[in-house]
């Protein structure tokens, strides 16, 4: 997928709100969902009049708007697909906020009890899977027992230019909120068990670690980077540190 330029933000926001309204999905008044949905409009106004926001407010506004813009664009990209109805149960969580601070964005930390945010990353990954496969299916966001992979889809492998039969893939998505290596390893182990379980009909699988709650977002937000590559390198360094903590002094037998 490609970057969605910010000058499309107003259109993205309007189309996303129209999509929610079409399916009778409305964020509760005063919820963080409502604030996130308003952030794009606020940021557009700030871009027109920069003196309307500065300092911390500007940083938090940029963060909220960027997260919502990215999330909305991913969802809109799969709306035309026949399996889009499989995505609606996750979207309907927007109308059923369990806690006031529940969020859509995947670029900020969320509270420990924000189960909705963890479900939204399943929707986010489902949108990505839809661009590399077909027949995407998401585990129920309200009746999941925790023993099934979160996203399952068909992928068509190509070997030496020759198209092979479809393979069913499973994604077990684990959101971490710690830098402790043993805990991260245990979450990976949980995901592997879901994929290997006889009830999982996928032939192949991948464990996806959602690290948004384990990152130092302020270190990234308050730094001034000279280029996009420098910013990406700073993020990669944090992710590498999480990987290294999970692998620190761990014998290969445990991974096997």
Notes on the protein architecture:
Helix content is 46%, strand content 12%. The chain is built from nine helices and six strands; from the N terminus they run αααααβββββαβααα. The protein has helices at 9-22, 32-48, 55-78, 88-91, 115-129, 181-196, 217-221, 228-247, 252-255; strands at 134-138, 151-155, 158-159, 162-163, 167-175, 204-210. The mean pLDDT is 87. Strand 3 and strand 4 form a beta hairpin. It is of the alpha+beta class and 256 residues long. It has one domain. Helix 1 packs antiparallel against helix 2, helix 2 (32-48) packs across helix 3 and helix 6 crosses helix 8. The relative contact order is 0.10.
